Structures are given as C-alpha cells and as structure tokens.
Amino acid sequence: MTGRTHDLAAATAVSLVVLRQPLPPIDAVTLVACAVATFAGGLAPDLDKPGSKLWRQVPAGGLLAWLVRPAFIGGHRNLSHSLLGAALFALGVQALLHAVPAGYIRVVPVWTCFVVAYLSHLVMDSLTEEGVPWFFPFGGRLGFPPLRPLRLKTGGWFEHLVVLPVLWGVLVYTWHAHLPEVMALLKALGASGR
Fold first, then answer.
1. Burial of residue 167, with CB atoms counted within 10 A of its CB: 0-12 exposed, 13-18 middle, 19 or more buried
2. Which of 6, 33, 71, 80 has the most CB atoms in a 10 Å sphere around its CB?
C-alpha cells in the first residue's frame, strides 16, 4: 500500500478502537501526541525502506535510514512487517514514552494509538501481492486472500478507486457514529488555547 493509504488506514483503525472505548479526560498535549503516534505507527513498518514516507518527513532522514538499515534483518517487508517487529517497536515506543517527564502526557493512549496504527499497516500490506511475514523469522509471507493473483497491486487502481474511498467511508461513519466523543476530543484541543 502507498503511504497515503497507510495514513488513512491508521487513522481509521485508531478511530475504530479508541472511539469505541469510554474516553477518559484527555489533555491537548496527549491528544496531539496521539495524532503523531498514529501517523508514526502507520508508517513505522516501512522504516526498513530508505525512501519511505516517514524517512522523508524527518530531517536528515536519508542519512538516518542508511545508518539504521542494518538493524532491519532481511531488508524491506521482513522483521518490521512481522509480529516480532511489532512487539519490538511497541517496546521501544513504550520506553521512549516512559522517558517523558511524568504528568506531561498520558502514556497509555499514545502507546495504544501507535500500536493500533502499526498493526493496521501490517493488515493493509497483507492485502497486497507481496503479503507480509507475520511470523518472521519462521515461515514465509502471508497474504489475504490466500491466492496471490487475487491480492492488490501497491499503488494500483483498486487501491486508489476502492480501498481509499472505503477507508474514508469507514472513518467518516465512525466519527459520525461517535460524534459526542469526537466533539469532546476537539473541545480538549480547543481548551489548550485558553
């Protein structure tokens, strides 16, 4: 899938998970951190690819990508596209969040947004011709549907004309179905400007 599709899939998945839970009071800093975590989590599996969208958003991203590339065993769509990679990233983000001074942000919502967005990336890439190695380093790549010729071509017409509109529809429907929660989040964001 393209970066745009992963962004939208991450926002949709996080909305589906977060808005269906009772929302505790949340401050604007945590809300912004959740948005950043959603964006980063939705693109993080592609950090194994030097030209990925997330590297292009980071100053000196090309240099950083080159420096960390050896950590991504097997190249693109291997370790970072597996449950093991998801667990390692989740632990890394948890450690980073716990390094933030206590009381500055609420760690659990930010971490949850990152993990849900990360997993959405793996699910979406499972729909592509290449599939993903969910159980790396054991076994090969898995995809859905199981027959590779029935899977999507990354950046192809089906992704742009069907997948993206469906994701937009689910996102808008989710926000509409949970409008009071969405408004409470927006109110928290607006309250920070006072």
1. buried
2. 80
Q: Distance (Å, rounded) from C-alpha 194 to C-alpha 25? A: 17
Q: Residue 9 is which amino acid?
A: A
Per-residue pLDDT tens over the stretch 23-64: 778 888 999 999 999 999 999 898 877 666 766 677 766 666
Per-residue b or e along 134-166, where b marks 16 or more CB atoms closer than 10 Å to that residue's CB: bebeeeebebeeeeeeebbeeeeeebeeebbee
Q: Nearest CA to 47 among 9, 106, 93, 105?
A: 93
pTM given for the model? 0.88
Separation CA 140–CA 109 (nearest Å): 33
Six token digits for residue 179:
């409008």
- The C-alpha atoms of residue 130 and residue 152 are separated, in whole angstroms, by 9
